[in-house]
UniProtKB/TrEMBL annotation:
It comes from Papaver somniferum (Opium poppy). GO terms for molecular function: zinc ion binding. InterPro entries: DYW_dom, E2_motif. Transmembrane segments: none annotated. This is DYW domain-containing protein. Residues 64-142 form the DYW domain.
Amino acid sequence: MSENGLTVDPGCSWMQVKGSVHAFLSGDESHPQIKEIKGVLEGLDERMKKAGSEILGSASLVDKPETSRADIFCGHSERLAVGFTLINTVPGMPIRVTKNPYMCGSCHNTMKFISKIVRREITVRDTEQFHNFKDGICSCGDEGYWRKLSE
């Protein structure tokens, strides 16, 4: 795309925490709490490795251990938003994120893991639908994601 002079607007996710709206762009490194956010994501990555694929079943990107670390740090804005919310809200509080593009299969899988590990309900509204993650299951029934994840 860049060879053709086209640019892509970065993905953006936003949520409300303590009465303020917070927004994250894909690959955003400028947030004042970025080190803490990355620390949370790294901790989740370790827990995901320990949990293995039993949470999500066999049709998972996480079945490939070499991809899980790259996947969790892909820089997609919803992951940064969820990491931020985890460190700035009380345990058990539902997480609500809105994002401008659709959610990729890797992020969909990661949200399933996070909802199971931290025992929080996570709702991500993308351009196509609401994804309500609870106990490692998404309300969409992985519609459209299973095929992507199993390829």
